[in-house]
């Protein structure tokens, strides 16, 4: 995979008084701050906290209601964005190989054939995520973990300096989580910036040096160990409860993970 041209430590993303929402109703309020190039950042918070909304906006798929996101010259095509699982149509008739190869569409266009170098990259990506031998299987016949591996292979082919992952380990088996987390570490080592929405706080503590705790506003941001302290988690819970709109389940989940 290619080198990342940006020097480490400079701001890749800058939020200035960023307010996001839908139909003029704010979902995330007044975010301020920067995300440095090369960060490995977890976004954590109760259900409805605006985590997916924030990723969507970073990906350029949602316009701010107020304020701005600066991307330091980064093009939308340089952002690999894995959306939350529910939005994927698994009945779409496509086999693993072609599904993964779609990661190259920005390079080759939708209907052009693959060159031999590209074919090798597709196979390498399939191999890297442990799906070797399943190239011809329809994606509808994959387990949750296998499908997620295919999605990660596709992200790998996009070769993007910024990778956004929205709850990538939703309901998948432990072996898949372990393998895909290793791939995320590799992306980080390659100098890519990775931002992941996650709910397993133990996983976040183990894998992510930095965390942003969100509850419709910024609760805390910084080193994971200090962000995920009981006081901050309690504050996130209170902010979520104040909304009174079905955030309860995820609040309990945060509690359980914190215990
Ligand atoms: P999270 O990912 O933290 O669970 P979301 O970003 O999905 O939270 O949602 C934040 C808020 O925005 C919620 O109140 C949700 O109902 C609302 N919301 C999310 N997507 C849409 C949408 N497409 N249209 C209207 N409201 C939305
Ligand atoms: Mg979400």
From TrEMBL:
Q: Does the keyword Nucleotide-binding apply?
A: yes
Entry keyword set: ATP-binding, Cell membrane, Hydrolase, Membrane, Nucleotide-binding, Transport
Coiled-coil regions in this chain? none
The cross-references to Pfam families, in alphabetical order and at most eight, read: ABC_tran
Under the heading PROSITE patterns, the entry gives: ABC_TRANSPORTER_1 (PS00211), ABC_TRANSPORTER_2 (PS50893)
Enzyme Commission number(s) from the entry: 3.6.3.-
Q: Where is the ABC transporter domain?
A: 13-240
Xref: InterPro entries? AAA+_ATPase, ABC_transporter-like_ATP-bd, ABC_transporter-like_CS, AztA-like, Metal_Ion_Import_ABC, P-loop_NTPase
SMART domains (UniProt xref): AAA
Q: Which GO terms describe its molecular function?
A: ATP binding; ATP hydrolysis activity
Family matches, as NCBIfam families? AztA (NF040873)
The record's similarity note reads: Belongs to the ABC transporter superfamily.
Q: What is this protein called?
A: Zinc transport system ATP-binding protein AdcC
Underlying gene: adcC
């Amino acid at each position: 995979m290619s080198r990342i041209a940006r020097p480490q430590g400079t701001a890749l993303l800058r939020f200035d008084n960023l307010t996001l929402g839908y139909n003029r109703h704010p979902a995330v309020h007044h975010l301020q701050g920067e995300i440095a190039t090369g960060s490995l950042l977890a976004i954590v918070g109760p259900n409805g906290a605006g985590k997916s909304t924030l990723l969507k906006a970073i990906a350029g798929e949602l316009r701010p209601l107020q304020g701005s996101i600066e991307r330091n010259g980064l093009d939308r095509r340089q952002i690999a964005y894995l959306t939350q699982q529910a939005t994927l149509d698994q009945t779409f008739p496509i086999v693993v190989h072609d599904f993964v190869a779609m990661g190259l569409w920005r390079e080759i266009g939708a209907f052009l054939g693959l060159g031999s170098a590209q074919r090798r990259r597709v196979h390498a990506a399939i191999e890297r995520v442990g799906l070797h031998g399943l190239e011809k299987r329809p994606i509808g016949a994959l387990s949750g973990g296998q499908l997620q591996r295919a999605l990660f292979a596709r992200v790998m082919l996009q070769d993007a300096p910024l990778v956004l992952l929205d709850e990538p380990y939703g309901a998948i088996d432990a072996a898949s989580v372990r393998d895909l987390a290793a791939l995320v570490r590799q992306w980080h080592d390659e100098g890519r910036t990775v931002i992941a929405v996650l709910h397993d706080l133990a996983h976040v503590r183990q894998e992510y040096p930095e965390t942003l705790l969100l509850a419709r506003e910024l609760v805390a941001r910084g080193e994971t160990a200090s962000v995920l302290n009981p006081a901050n988690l309690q504050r996130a819970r209170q902010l979520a409860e104040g909304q009174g709109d079905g955030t309860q389940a995820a609040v309990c989940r945060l509690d359980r993970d914190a215990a």
